[in-house]
């Protein structure tokens, strides 16, 4: 079980330059995760039940499922 600091649901856990695993829109059915470095945080609210939406340095956009430590 992931701890609170690794949860992608809370904006406070995510910082630019951090390694994360995201699920992109077209991968939601399969749950396929994409690893990358956060370039921008797109969700403005403090938390989101499906994960905070970010853009990776690669340009890919998705919701954070796990913050990699």
Structure description:
With 69 residues, this protein is an all-beta fold. It has a single domain (4-67), classed as SH3 type barrels. Helix content is 0%, strand content 36%. The chain has no helices and 4 strands. A 4-stranded antiparallel beta barrel has the order 1-2-3-4. Strand 3 and strand 4 (61-67) form a beta hairpin. The chain is globular, with a radius of gyration of 11 Å. The mean pLDDT is 94.
Q: What is the fold's blueprint, element by element?
A:
Blueprint: E1 19-24, E2 34-41, E3 53-56, E4 61-67
Antiparallel strand pairs: 1-2, 1-4, 2-3, 3-4
Summarize this, please?
This protein has strands at 19-24, 34-41, 53-56, 61-67. The protein has 69 residues and is an all-beta fold. The model has no long low-confidence stretch (mean pLDDT 94).
User: What is the gyration radius calculated from CA atoms?
Assistant: 11 Å
The CATH topology is given as SH3 type barrels
Secondary-structure element order, N to C: EEEE
CATH architecture: Roll
Q: How would you sum up the major sheet?
A: 4 strands, antiparallel, barrel
How many helical elements? 0
| Intertermini distance | 14 Å
Q: Shape from CA axes?
A: globular
Total count of domains: 1
Strand order of the largest sheet: 1-2-3-4
Strand content: 35-45%
Q: Low-confidence spans: pLDDT under 50, at least 5 residues?
A: none
| Integer average pLDDT | 94
CATH class: Mainly Beta
User: Structural class per helix/strand content?
Assistant: mainly beta
Strand tally: 4
